[in-house]
Design goal:
mainly alpha, 15 helices
Amino acid sequence: MTAIKWKTFPHTAKDYAYEGAALKSAWPELHRGDCEPFPDAAFVKQAFARHPRLRGALDGEKTAVALQSAWRAYHRGDFGAAVAEGTALGPIGANAANKAANIYATYLETDSERKREILLRSAERAEALQAAAPDFPNAFYFHAQALGRYAQEISIAKALAQGIGGRVKASLDKTIKLEPNHAEAHIALGAYHAEIVSKVGGMLAALTYGASKEEAVRQFALARKLLPDSAIARIEEANGLVMLFGKAKLAEAQRLYKEAANCAPADAMQKLDAEHAKGDAEG
């Protein structure tokens, strides 16, 4: 992989520093969307005991400290550091690395080739984690997220032709099977249904991909019930409504974009979500 020159988070990072015990205190709110467990020593030691292939060069205590450092980097918007620190830990660091890589590629990387490279490497790390720890929900969710963003980059039609749509759906289904309250997976599944129907039409979407307008709407509603204060849940639902219903849902989509823009961010990703929504609301 060519060296990535990671761009700086373009907002005030110190608002999302979460040093020391602050990370654990804020964790339940920060990770309501993805249900990622707090990576303390107890979690790491249990993970090593269940899945010996997760073990790296560090013991459980040091791995936990390093994992928390990677997640702190992610939350404050130092995405390059989060990817580097997470990747250095091997598969157990993949979730921190992958969420950072995926969000960076979505919002901050402007070069299409680099973006695709970042997302494919994220998918590879996720697959390594799936093999090592097949009961980790986010091994599958961040895999789906990376491939979904990659599909958007190369075009949905091309991605469907390459079978990427099926891989995204399989990973989202597995995420929800392992963690039914995974709000971000429900958001992504809503977007999956909306994009397929929008691209190939309702009949072909249903027959070939098992996708439907009704399921898109249901998944978005479920996600917002699980994550009522989320900007990204509103953004993706608004995008989906416009894809599925066009002008008939434009006013509702604008309302959702405005609500998303007013959501109070708790970390760098949420700040980027809200700023993106401001652009949509104004547009």
